[in-house]
Write a structure and sequence with these properties.
2 domains
């Protein structure tokens, strides 16, 4: 905790100096006490509530799994009661997955959050490769099935020679 307090600069450093001075002499401040005091000062309860709601409503949607993971990790600090164990974190993450990916990985036996994310990333990549190959096949079949008329070429335009263009009688 002392290291974190030592790293505070600017307004946060001034806040900590005043906060520390207001405590009894020889007070011991735990990390949780520091976090609570810091959040009470810099993160209003209304913002905490908004971010908590954003976390609860977070879904992968059209985002890549990596972008969903970053959003999940960013917002999870506002809903710590849903990520304070690996099992809760995993359940919260699964809740917001894109339904097709969730269905594809439903039988996954990963027991840790990190294992599950790794497996889900692998599955998402496999889905993308499959979709790309399917699209290439469709494009090939569409091109092969169309009858193509023989190409005819028009003669290239040639400007008349300046000497022969105007003949005088």
């Amino acid at each position: 905790m002392e290291y974190a307090a030592h790293k505070l600069e600017g307004k946060a450093g001034v806040w900590w100096s005043h906060h520390w001075a207001s405590l009894p002499a020889n007070a011991v401040v735990t990390w949780d006490q520091f976090k609570t005091a810091f959040r009470d000062t810099y993160v209003p309860q209304g913002l905490m509530t908004i971010k908590h709601t954003e976390f609860m409503n977070l879904t992968q949607g059209t985002k890549s799994l990596t972008k969903y993971l970053h959003a999940f990790n960013n917002l999870s600090r506002y809903a710590t009661e849903f990520v304070d164990t690996d099992a809760k974190k995993l359940a919260s993450f699964k809740r917001g997955l894109w339904p097709k990916l969730s269905n594809n990985i439903a039988g996954n036996k990963s027991t840790t959050f990190n294992e599950f994310v790794s497996d889900a990333l692998t599955q998402e990549n496999s889905n993308a490769i499959y979709a790309a190959s399917k699209n290439r096949k469709r494009a090939y079949e569409a091109g092969a099935s169309q009858s193509k008329a023989p190409e005819t070429s028009k003669p290239a335009y040639r400007a008349p020679n300046a000497m022969t263009r105007y003949r005088l009688p």
